[in-house]
Amino acid sequence: MIRLAIHGGAGTILRSSMTAELQQQYEQGLQDALQAGYSVLQSGGSAVDAVQAAVVSLEDFPLFNAGRGSVFNNVGGHEMDASIMDGSNLMAGAVSGISLVKNPVLLARTIMDKSEHVLLCGQGAEQFAKHQGLQFEDDAYFYVQHRYEQWQQALKEDSISLDHNDKKFGTVGAVALDANGNLAAATSTGGMTNKKFGRMGDSPIIGAGTYANNNTCAISCTGHGELFIRAVVAYDISCLMEYKGLSLKEACDVVVHDKLVKIKGEGGLVALDKHGNIELPFNSEGMYRGYATENERKVMIYKD
């Protein structure tokens, strides 16, 4: 049994504000990521390799707020975060506040595999990436016109935007179950438009935005990062399963539709348990999401 689920962000995503052409582009981006990750699983690859492949695909797609499509910070640069976790051994790697690294998730993976650390940030993380031979790009690669326009608008308003001005939480992520029964999760983001002071959300924080444990589940989150950090969302779902015996669906419902709602934490997540059950819960208007199994491949955007 092999499974893959992905997301490209949650928030106020309405049919009324989406053109048919733009919707088709988003759906194609999700399909491409599903293909990239699921083909790894089909060829006998590991869950870690599968989530990495899916997230790399999403990072390379300019409509999603990660990698190439990352939003602009307050000084007109990009500060990207990412993390990855292997459910078979609880190894994890994460990176925060990096610029010009083409694929932040690859740096997170390299930190997990090639260092004794879990989380590296800023210039030190970039230095490590250079030592490891990871690919860098110049500013022009990360320049996306609609992201620039969002930043200009945010500067005028002196506001910090959640991806789009219509409140979309821009993060990408994936969870996978491989043929050996191993789970993995990965998450990547460009953060908030016009963010200041080195702000970090939940995406690079193991247990908040990303978590994987073969005994329970794999989780990748997207939402208002500060609230997801306070609620320790990803680990809380695993704990509800491990210590209270809840099913994946029950645990997701408690966290996403009760605990988060109570603290005004908007967003969602993709989840997968060791039995291959998939959950894609969100408490926002929409979430770019999809999943692939042996019998089905599906991408969705809206509540219905």
Question: Level of helix content?
Answer: 25-40%
Number of domains: 1
State the total count of DSSP E strands. Answer: 13
The number of distinct helices, counting runs of at least 4 residues, comes to: 8
Structural class: alpha+beta
Uncertain runs = none
Outline type: globular
Biggest sheet architecture? 9 strands, mixed
Give me the strand/helix succession.
Answer: EHHEEHEHHEEEEEHHHEEEE
- Rounded to the nearest angstrom, the distance between the terminal CA atoms is 27 Å
Proportion of residues in extended strands: 15-25%
3D architecture notes:
The protein is an alpha+beta fold and 304 residues long. It has one domain (3-298): Glutamine Phosphoribosylpyrophosphate, subunit 1, domain 1. The protein contains eight helices and 13 strands. The chain has helices spanning 20-42, 47-60, 104-114, 122-131, 145-157, 225-230, 233-244, 248-262; strands at 3-11, 80-86, 91-98, 119-121, 168-169, 171-177, 183-189, 210-212, 217-223, 267-273, 278-279, 286-292, 297-302. The strands form two sheets. Strands 1, 2, 3, 4, 5, 6, 7, 12 and 13 form a nine-stranded mixed beta sheet that branches. Strand 8 (210-212) and strand 9 form a beta hairpin. The longest helix has 23 residues, at 20-42. It is globular and about 50 Å long. The mean pLDDT is 93.
